[in-house]
Amino acid sequence: MHKILVTGGLGFIGSHTVVELQNEGYEVVIIDNLSNSSKDVLKGITKITGKTPLFVELDLKDKHLVQDFFKTHQDIKGVIHFAASKAVGESVGNPLLYYENNINTLVYVLQELNKLDTANFIFSSSCTVYGQADELPITENAPVKPAESPYGNTKQIGEEIIKDSCKVSQNLKAIALRYFNPIGAHESAHIGELPIGVPLNLVPFITQTAVGLREQLSVFGDDYPTTDGTCVRDYIHVVDLAKAHVIALKRLLDQKNESNFEVFNLGTGTGSSVLEAIKSFEKVSGEQLNYKIAPRREGDVVAAFADTEKANTVLGWKSELTLDDAMRSAWKWEKKIRNK
Ligand code: UD1
């Protein structure tokens, strides 16, 4: 079976994707620098799939190490590139760190892929490229808005770099997957999200509050022009998202792609408000969440949810799990890692 490189394969979305790849019979090699992950994730992957992927601890910022890696693994048939930093606030404070981590590394990997006979590349992008879209749901044709943060900019520039490379390359084919809001965990609770420090994203903050690690959740703003005044997002179960990566990769391997660079939105197509997300959590967990309404958070868009038509019909992928499923799995995972 094909050998696939997953960069950032010990991270949240990466680890779930490794599981789905192995479940489909692919041979997986993981590169991770452990900057925001742990080797223990390998144990979780092994428990679920019965197979331990090859793990290479490597920092993709080191161009020579990237070159050496590809020299040793010339039989790689596809790359799913997750490795990147993703904290919006941190990127504002330290833009060069973000450009180095997210752009240099991408360039080094692409340079090596250019040396292969065929190279299939899946890029981890984000709905952040749309900013506040003028029309909802958001289609892939919605204009890319000036990025609100260096992090967002790295996703836009990253897509441009790949697109330009695909234009002139004889061998490189790529798909950029624009994720909406990935949440949840594997149903086995062997892998899940492991934010370091105080979580910035909603769902880990909810589960950490319910488990007693955080005092209270702040709901950032209830005076937005939405049904209940709180922001609306498209929360997508990480396992559905992981499966989409395998489908996208197969599309390239089977040469089913319509052009050498394609873009797909990955979401459920349904928008949920912050209060609806909290209600879903309370329903499936049986816990009452301590939360308060707080001021708006700077940089938040009012509402974002995906038009899933292209992903459904062209890619042939559809999300199957619900917000309740995602909350249930996130809660199971949180309790497990806190020994509750
Ligand atoms: C955020 C990033 C986005 C990035 C994604 C990666 C911002 C502005 N956007 O998306 O660029 O791709 O993470 O995971 O940072 N909320 C609360 N209280 C909290 C935390 C969040 O009310 O403690 C609300 C937010 O206002 C938002 C929703 O929950 O309405 C989701 O927030 P979050 O999980 O941080 O995701 P995004 O902001 O959509």
UniProtKB/TrEMBL annotation:
UniProt keywords, alphabetically: Carbohydrate metabolism, Isomerase, NAD
Catalyzed reactions per annotation: UDP-alpha-D-glucose = UDP-alpha-D-galactose
NCBIfam families (UniProt xref): galE
Complex formation: Homodimer.
NAD(P)-binding domain: residues covered: 5-328
Cellular component aspect of the GO annotation: cytosol
Protein name per its UniProtKB record: UDP-glucose 4-epimerase
Pfam family, one: GDP_Man_Dehyd
Biological process according to GO: galactose metabolic process
Keyword Magnesium: no
EC number: 5.1.3.2
